[in-house]
Amino acid sequence: MTQKYGHRPPILLTLTILPISLILILNPLIPLIIPKWIFKFSTSLSSLIKEDEYKFPALQANLGFSLLAFIISIWLIPKVSESFILKGLKGRDLLKSGDKLNGPWVPESLGLPCASLYLALMMLFIPFPFSHLFKSHSFSSPETFPQRELTLYLSSLLSLLTATLLGFIDDLFDIRWRHKLPIPIVSAVPTLLVYYSVGGVTSIVLPKSIVGWLSSIGPIYYLYLIMLPTFTTNSINILAGINGVEVLQALIIAISISINDLIFLPIWSINLLNLFGFKNPENGRILNWAIGEVVNRHLMSLYFMIPLIGICLGFLWHNWYPAKAFPGDTFCYFTGMAFSAVAIQGHFSKTLILFFLPQIFNFILSCPQLFGLVKCPRHRLPSYDEKTNLLNPSKVLFDSSPPKKTIIVLKLLSILKLVKLEYDVDDNNNKEYIKSSTNLTILNFLLIHFGPLKEDKLCILMGLIQVLGSLIAFIIRYGVGSWFYGGERR
């Protein structure tokens, strides 16, 4: 039987992962579920659930929610696809044979159910980081409820909810990109206000050669934080056009942030730390200065990133070549805002930018077209060859010699091997002029040097570039950065 919408969900994988996810979610709740009188008569059971027997029990539940997000999203997309098509949220894949006019409709804007599922699971997760405060029994003195952590968590959820709403509005009304720029700023207001209310730091680390390790730049730093969500949302949105590429880059960035968070947590095996020669292995820490507030910040970030990985994996199941579902702008908005929210609340906004190196390259390369120096067509996605089923770089054509400023920009980019130019001779004056240029995107750049390629191969290549960018980011952050700045870069 043919699957009408989406790729066929994996039944065996679902039956395997679902029980594991439920066990991980319920495990931290055991002390709440078991009646208090049992602990009075069972010292052995009491010893099993002491907090110091395992670290970060909420992290176990968070992993369970991530697995649950993966499974639910795989099964959810086919269920809601028909409703989106009936409401007119549909499109045809422009990079498939005959699909421009006669191909099957593919549901669009399916970032909305993904974002809705993510937000629902993150709301259900709210009690878990504070579950030790709800115990009917107690091994220690009562604790004060951590209002600060709860406020940070809820403000991040509010920003994500706003970004999802505004992203879906963009999908409905197809807002021009110039008008999209301020939209993420609106979504970031709750996060920025809470950042300020909890004593947000406005200091930056200066190179060790400059006197004074920290320098406060005040309102300028908040201007940078305001621009951060604008960049993270739109940079993912700009780097699009082939099946799976938006979701894949979001997935790799989320994994990179999670790895960065794990470096700060004291959860590592003593034997493993001894093997690699880390200091203070008895505390399970890779970074010997990663204690207290620094750990809490990255733990909160990890709470948001791990379920996002599950969502991205689940949606990638249907968005991979040949795509049966399109993410729309909603997906780019909510994932980009998730990255900005955790970076702002976790005080690692500069590190986040390093994970966007391919997106930065794509944005800089695109600037001549985005700002009118070079003619910009509505679609800059690669060109599809029906005979070979391969993708080639798409081109922008010039009927006559382009303006001088355009010629200068294109020739400079050609010298740098960033574009491929074609020349022709003007019949009127017998002078050579630029007839066409490849569009200024990283996908076309890759096709110039590695193409022609099949669509899925191009997506894999882009994913490898994203992974390479993350590796470079870690080298800069924990290698070059430590040498250049010195001190404990928190």
What does this structure look like?
The chain is mostly helical and 490 residues long. It has two domains: 11-131 and 146-355, no CATH class; 383-450, no CATH class. 58% of the residues lie in helices and 6% in strands. The chain is built from 19 helices and nine strands. The protein has helices at residues 11-26, 30-33, 36-41, 43-48, 57-86, 111-124, 147-173, 177-180, 183-197, 219-238, 245-263, 270-275, 293-319, 328-346, 349-354, 357-370, 404-415, 442-450, 455-485, and strands spanning 90-91, 106-107, 203-205, 214-216, 383-385, 390-392, 395-397, 421-425, 432-438. The strands form four sheets. Strands 7-9-8 form a three-stranded antiparallel beta sheet. A hairpin with a 4-residue loop joins strand 5 and strand 6 (390-392). Helix 11 (245-263) packs parallel to helix 19 and helix 13 runs antiparallel to helix 14. The longest helix is centred in the last third of the chain and has 31 residues, at 455-485. The chain is globular. Mean pLDDT is 83; it is low at 41-54 and 136-142.
Overall number of strands: 9
The proportion of strand residues reads 5-15%
- Helical content (DSSP H or I, runs of 4+): 55-70%
Q: End-to-end span in angstroms?
A: 55 Å
- Radius of gyration over C-alpha positions, nearest whole angstrom: 25 Å
The secondary structure category is mainly alpha
Average pLDDT: 83
Q: Please tell me what the overall shape is.
A: globular
Q: How many structural domains in the coordinates?
A: 2
